[in-house]
Amino acid sequence: MQTVRDAAGDRYLLVKRSAESSRIRDPDTGEEEYRPNDALTFESETPLSVRAAAVPAPVRRVVAAVHDDRSLGLLLDLVDRGPLAAVDLLASTDLCESDLHGLLTEFRAADLAVETAVSGERGYDATDTAREAVASLRTVGGDEE
User: Fold this and answer.
1) For residues 57 and 15, what is the distance between their CA atoms, to the nearest angstrom?
2) pTM score, two decimals?
3) Whether residue 113 sits in one domain with residue 47
């Protein structure tokens, strides 16, 4: 599948192309329609990337950086209780120092956490991106498993 843009710059997925028109699908709504080929710009961006763009960027960032329930729990801890000193994080989690450092490094690389000083000690806090993503996930998630 290929991606296309219309004159307004909106992206669509190409479903079918004929000589004069193409059937395109809106990646956000799934609705399909025909448009003249000369009204579309054909791109090389992958359709799966276009589909993923329907999810807010901060949420995609969390999905990419969080690998399991423990790492998600750590991020939630930073969002809910941060900023937290590194020693306090180590004492309040079941993570060894190496695992904690590794996760915090990944969160920092993904712009989900920042290093900061807490009572004169090295600590970490969630970024606005992390807070926005967690708020979105909590709104969508509810109590479902």
Assistant:
1) 25
2) 0.67
3) no
